[in-house]
User: Fold this.
Amino acid sequence: MTKLSTQSDQTHHASKSDNMPDETAEVLVDYQGHIAIVTLNRPQARNAYSSLMIRQIVSTLDELELNPEVRVLILTGAGSAFSAGGDLKLMRDKEGMFQGEALELRSRYMQEIHQVPRRLARFSKPVIAAINGAAIGAGLDLSLMCDLRISAQSAKFGSTFVKVGLIPGDGGTYYLTRVIGLAKAIELTLTGRVISSQEAFNMGIISRVVADEQLMESALELAQEIAQNAPIAVQLTKAAAYQSLNASPEGALQIAAGFQGIAQNTSDHLEGVQAILERRAPKFTGQ
Assistant:
């Protein structure tokens, strides 16, 4: 990954302190201004999940949630893939998260891989998936858990669980159906077909397709466009959108009224109004 300017001018390894970098860390974090770039770092396994990676994803999200300087997160993959999902070698050998009988496996899924969708669902800040390569199986599902998705032109997408005799065990049917609708989601999950970035764009899985070499630049531009806005308002707007999905019209209005009451009493709201009146750029502080 291209070296970016960071808060400490160093790459942060999620499993170690900044003073003791761990070259085997499976999640890396770089910073550019108010943007955190989180990179899945198992390129030798095409960024397939491991138990360690899952723990590091969750702990990284915990850390970034509490960091007031971080306003937007970009998630991408090291090497040629975004994420190939499950580790096929571990599946074959029934090791790691794939070992055990039915009840034990059910418990493993709930205690390990399910931590990722649960934590992302609670993450208050916008998350952009910068899909640099194949997003297959649980890797596709991980991208769908993000709020926005930008894809490199060469990337491939597939919900391929049935090809290896499995189901989307990380909740992928839920996320894919919510993003593209039941009919298209059923087609992709039952066929296990792998599609191109252009097909994924046409289906609505991704919102932008860019040249491979422009992916991170495009993701950063979008992240910066979001990050320049009032942070509390951005987070409340994200929360309102998700909470309103299954709400009645009256319920959605109640959500909007409650969140607006919070936003309208922030310093950033007054700063935004004053900046427009004074015809200058606002200086939002997240207060």
